[in-house]
Specification:
Length: 426
């Protein structure tokens, strides 16, 4: 690991949580240089829904490269882009009765968010945007301004202006927080400028696997329509099948004005896009641009994934089946250790959180102990107090159960060591 310590910036993060050198990967596993195999419950922070080195995607990429297909083409027309657009329209948009234009942005999720915010302000002629407590939307300047966590909002690199925060669903327990948003909009002395847009995740991934209810999302959409506010759904981490539906908002029956998509849409390759209602497409040619807004390899990977996994309901049904397993097992584990840990299990699809409420440090320790059990799993939440489960969607049942078994073993070992240490003090 010395080369990384000597040459790579101190900003490196995940390498500290998982201190080994990975060499190969397949499906839901990573293998290090020593040949040790780890089960991956992290999936590139939600980038690898279709698994590592998915054979269908890899084969399509190899064939494309062997015939000298375009790799970089700015926003020029290419065969790869044409075929992706056709597949996305025919397989994703049309069956869901969705009518959107597609804008390709820079290759990461934060590029998509920056684009959505810029467009909303351009269209509405207003500067204010409403975001929600515990929201995470990226770490460039505009995206950081709508991100709630103070760790990412240092005055030295982001402007706090033109963004207002409202409480997310469940932030005040059983209170309907949409009533607060509505009151602020109704009261001309509230200090809240009518926003150009609101931006929201249906499940807050980095914020702690906080799940918005169907009713809350529907009321949010209703308020947006009433006050002429654009509704932006950030589907970067929990879209692309993570909830069992392609879009995480489908269950609520809402119709966002703008949707940001990245991570798994590229089949493991960098790709981001913005879906926008046709009447919002008010850009002048070249008004919002970038060198890498046409990753043709990602177009190939994305088209392959769409055609292989979204022509029918097989993947959706598999996610819903595996959700029952992960929910039941996590609830059983929480019950087993209820004397030591005060845990809330929550989530939807294959995005689940193990929220440890009585000790914020335990989640980080569990991630480390799980690593010792050859399980890759990360934490989330305002204090990193939640263990976050994001396995690849294609993980088989046997490996899913084995990973959960390793997680339980990590808790068992940690609790035993804490008990032994405590007894040694008396």
């Amino acid at each position: 690991m010395r080369i990384f310590e000597n040459l790579e910036s101190e900003v490196r993060g995940y390498i500290r949580s998982f201190p080994t050198i990975f060499e190969t990967s397949k499906g839901a596993t990573l293998t290090n240089e020593q040949g040790e195999e780890f089960i991956d419950f992290f999936a590139g922070a939600g980038t690898l829904n279709y698994g590592h080195n998915n054979p269908l995607i890899s084969e399509a990429l190899i064939k494309y490269l062997q015939k000298d297909g375009i790799v970089h083409g700015l926003d020029m027309a290419t065969t790869a882009k044409k075929e992706f657009l056709q597949s996305f329209q025919d397989t994703i948009l049309v069956p869901r009765n969705l009518d959107y234009k597609i804008q390709f942005t820079g290759p990461t999720g934060t590029n998509a968010v920056e684009t959505a915010l810029k467009l909303a302000r351009l269209v509405k002629g207003r500067s204010n945007v409403v975001s929600f407590t515990n929201g995470f939307h990226g770490l460039t300047q505009g995206s950081s301004s709508v991100t709630g966590n103070n760790d990412y909002r240092d005055e030295s690199y982001i402007s706090r202006s033109n963004v207002s925060f409202m409480p997310f669903d469940g932030y005040f327990g059983d209170m309907n927080t949409m009533s607060i948003f509505r009151k602020f909009l109704e009261d001309s002395s509230s200090g809240l400028d009518i926003p150009a847009a609101v931006i929201v995740e249906t499940i807050q991934g980095e914020g702690g696997i906080n799940v918005a209810s169907k009713e809350w999302l529907q009321e949010l959409e209703s308020i947006c329509r009433e006050y002429d506010i654009l509704l932006i759904i950030d589907d970067i981490q929990v879209g692309n099948g993570r909830t069992g539906e392609f879009f995480s908002f489908e269950f609520a029956g809402i119709n966002p004005d703008i949707i940001t998509i990245s991570k798994s849409i590229g089949g493991g390759l960098p790709m981001a896009l913005v879906l926008l209602k046709p009447d919002l497409d008010q850009w002048k040619p070249g008004e919002h641009t970038g060198t890498f807004r046409g990753n043709n390899l990602a177009f190939v990977a994305a088209r392959t994934a769409i055609e292989q996994y979204w022509q029918n309901d097989d993947l959706s049904n598999a996610v819903k089946y595996k959700e029952k397993i992960i929910k039941e097992e996590l609830q059983r584990i929480a019950e087993r250790f209820k004397e030591e840990l005060d845990v809330e299990v929550r989530g939807r699809g294959l995005a689940y959180g193990f929220d440890i409420k009585n000790d914020n440090s335990i989640a980080g320790e569990l991630s480390s102990y799980a690593f010792n059990e050859k399980l890759i799993i990360e934490t989330c939440g305002s204090e990193d107090q939640i263990v976050k489960f994001l396995p690849p969607l294609i993980i088989d049942e046997e490996m899913l159960r084995e990973g959960l078994k390793r997680f339980e073993k990590a808790i068992e070992t940690l609790m035993a060591e804490k008990k032994e240490k405590l007894s040694g003090e008396f």
